[in-house]
Specification:
single chain, mainly alpha, globular
């Protein structure tokens, strides 16, 4: 592996923490910048995946809707 720059690493860690906070908060915050990312489900989709994942035992994405759509794991069986 090629080592990354420390500033890049800390930016990635910070962005992942903000994304996790957004997905696990349970609220659809209207001012979040993730609303502008295509195929991003946010807190509503993440909660739905916890519901569906508990029944089908399989999910392919925590927030990106296209992965579960392609694999057919976005529906309750």
């Amino acid at each position: 592996m090629v080592p990354g720059h420390m500033i890049t690493w800390w930016l990635w860690v910070g962005l992942r923490q903000l994304e996790a906070l957004d997905a696990h908060s349970g609220y659809g915050v209207p001012s979040t910048p993730t609303k502008y990312i295509p195929f991003y489900g946010g807190a509503d989709y993440h909660d739905y995946l916890h519901y569906v994942g508990g029944q089908s035992q399989s999910n392919f994405a925590s927030v990106f809707t296209y992965c579960d759509y392609i694999n057919g794991t976005d529906k309750v069986i």
